[in-house]
Amino acid sequence: MPTLLHLDASARSTSFSRRLGARFAEGWRAAHPGAGYVHRDLAADPVPFIGEAWTELCDEVMRRRITDLRRYAEVVQTPAQQAAWAVVAPLLDELLAADVVLVATPMYNFSVPAVLKAWIDQVTFPRMSLAGTRFVVVCARGGTYLPGTPRAPVEHATTYLRDFFDGHFAVTDVDVVAAELVNSLVDPLLADRRGEHDASLAAAEAEIDRLVATSTAAVA
After folding, report:
1. Where is the Flavodoxin-like fold domain positioned along the sequence (predicted)?
2. Which of 1, 113, 187, 219 is surrounded by the most beta carbons within 10 Å?
């Protein structure tokens, strides 16, 4: 049976990115009874930032030209490296076991939250490939950053994730869903754009439902 790894990165316990992520996860799990499911809340239980021992592990992976991700533990030597690997191992095991990785994230200050970047750094090593793994990114953004809008060039959240998964993990199967203008609910200067937000959220929910249905059809 397939396995879904679900990552939440929002600092808010209730947020639009969490809402959209939960919608996909619940639909996917209903469509795959008995399938594996792992939920990691990176905001509530953040992983530590990488340190020097982690960089030593990366260096040794490159020196030995290791391409089998399950052999990375072979490079661990010093106590500091053992401590670094103790952080990496469970995160990497979850990632390698997943057929689908769901990343639910807001965009903070034009990019992804630090807790998500910390997770990415911990599980990323040289010469690794996750080709064949499906990634789904659901994102909530305070303003609008759609192609053709004035702020589109500074959208470094979903564009970063898509480019990273493709460029480093060799993953081309990446679906991105975003809800725009969530700040219209709280910012008086955006209040007149509430209708655009509502439409964007409805479109995002419909797209998530379509992705769930597509994944069900693919398995069937």
Report:
1. 3-184
2. 113
